[in-house]
Amino acid sequence: MFADLTLATILFLISASFFAGFVDSIAGGGGLIQLPALLIGLPKTDTVTVLGTNKLGSVFGTTTAAALYRRQIKPDIKVLAAMAIPAFIGSAIGASLASRIPTQSMRPIVLVLLIVVAIYTWLKPDLGKIQLLRHASKRRIQISIAAGLIIGFYDGIFGPGTGTFLVFFLVSTIGYAFLKASATAKLVNIATNAGAILSFQLTGHIWWQLGLLLAFANVTGAILGSRLAIRGGSTLVRKVFLAVTFLLIARVAWDTFIS
Q1: DSSP string computed for 146-165
Q2: 43 CB contacts (<8 Å, ≥6 apart)?
Q3: CA triplet 223, 113, 126: central angle to 5 degrees?
Q4: CA distance linking residue 122 with residue 246, whole number of Å
Q5: What are the DSSP calls for 78-95, one per residue?
Q6: What would the pLDDT profile of 120-156 be if each residue is shown by its tens digit?
Q7: How far is CA 130 from CA 32, 82, 123, 140, 178, in A?
Q8: How confident is the model at residue 259 (pLDDT cuts 50, 70, 90)?
C-alpha cells in the first residue's frame, strides 16, 4: 500500500496533517501546511493526484471541526446554504480544470489578495470582535452566493488560503464575529472539499489509502484546535487568522518569486 514511501516520509506527512488540522480548525489556512508537505513528500506523484489526496485528508478534519463548533455556535442557515451550494458547484468545476490551467499564473493574484486581507484586518483592530451584520437580508444572500461560487472555484483549482478567504469574507462583508465566521467557514469548506473530491475521484486522482491515513491525523488536530478556539473566542481566532495570513503571504511569495 505504501511501498513507495519511507517510514520517515509517512511520519512527516502525518505530522503535517495533524498541524494542518489544528491550524485550519481555528482560522483556516491548513493548506499552507498539508499541501506543501504532500508536494515535498510525494515528488514523483502527479500534482493533480496530490491535490485530490490533500482534499480527502482535509475534509474529515474540517467536518470534525464543524461538528464541534456546531454544538456551541448556531450558523445562519440561509447564509450558509447560499454559500455552500454554489461553493460545492464552483469547487467541482475548479477541480475539473486543475490539470488544464497552470496554477503558477494564479499565484501573483492570490498574493495581492492576501496582502490586502492582512492590511485591512491589521488596520481594523475591532473588526470581528462582535457581530455587526451588514446589508439587508436579501442582499446578504446574493453576496454570499457570489462569494461561495468564486471561493469554491478557487479551492477546487488551487486551494491554499481558502479558509482564510472564507473567514475574511464573512467578517468583513457579512459582519460576523471571528468565531462565528470560522465556524461557518468550516461548513462551507466541507462543501468545497466534497465538490473537489467528487471531481478528482471521477478522474481517478485520489490516493485513498494515504488520504485516509492523513484524515486521521487531520481529525486529531482539528479536535484540539476547535476546542481551543471555542475557549479563546474571537480574540484568539483573530490573532491566529492574522498569523496564518502572514505565513500564507510568505509562502505564496516564495513560490512566486524564488522557487
Answers
A1: HHHHHHHHHHHHT-TTHHHH
A2: none
A3: 65
A4: 11
A5: HHHHHHHHHHHHHHHHHH
A6: 999 998 889 999 999 999 999 999 999 999 999 999 8
A7: 27, 22, 16, 18, 8
A8: low
